[in-house]
Amino acid sequence: MKRKPVIYKILNTVNGKFYIGSTGCLKQRASCHRTRLRRNRHHCSYLQNAWNKYGPEAFVFLVVEEVPSIEELPVAEDRWLQEHYGKPYCYNLSKHADAPMRGRSGELAHNFGKPVPEEMREKISQALKDFYAEDPSNHPRLGKPHNEETRRKISEKVNAALSRGGAGKYKRSPETIRKLSESQKGNSYAKGYKRTEEERKAISERMKGKTLWLGKKHSEESKLKMGKPIIVTHPDGTEKHYATITIFRAESGLLVPTVQRALKSGQPLKKGPFKGYSFRYA
Length: 282
Fold this sequence. Notes:
Elements: E1 6-12, E2 18-23, H1 26-38, H2 45-54, E3 59-66, H3 73-84, H4 118-134, H5 148-163, H6 174-184, H7 197-207, H8 220-226, E4 230-233, E5 239-242, H9 245-252, H10 256-265, E6 278-281
Antiparallel strand pairs: 1-2, 1-3, 4-5, 4-6
């Protein structure tokens, strides 16, 4: 075989099906195909399965078009692929010579039905984050508003989620609140952890300018729910229960640091009008 640019077929002489390809040297390319097929490592699974079923003697290499130059091969191959790709008699998995995966969707896609391992997901995610961080203009959605149909679909999904008890204008049902509460009991994610000065500064910077609670106050009911009940022990041993520390402070006039220190230490106060009094959480 002479060295020249051609479009070729690998023809299955048993059923008439074929694979389309292009090359500048058919002898060399045919040898490469045969080697991979014999080793069961050909990139085209349809051709490989047929080779395994019918055997090497069922296949022949045929020149179907001579191309004037190497540079014109991709255009010529694309023309053949556009005509035959996706037909029952064509083994090719690729619709385009220069982009094998373009135009392949559903069952024709290389990894159709194959779940991506978690480790690979993390690598892909990190690679994309780095890519977008390097230049925000790399993001495919930058400056592209959603059309009305997409906005409608997003709105429907959000409203459906909210109606099931998500955040927003819909309130969670008592059953949902109970389940959330049960799931959080016993959790101690960062118990005992103290933020570094850098973390505190970073949080402070993030919160500057935010006015989520500006001008708002907790209701008395909310204060009762958030407050911790305490027990105040008189020097004579009698005890009195308070629903929250705030209620006790309002009655006694003691400052927050005084009560907090006594609660933490467990020791009675050593001076003042409440000398000898001790405090503990109920």
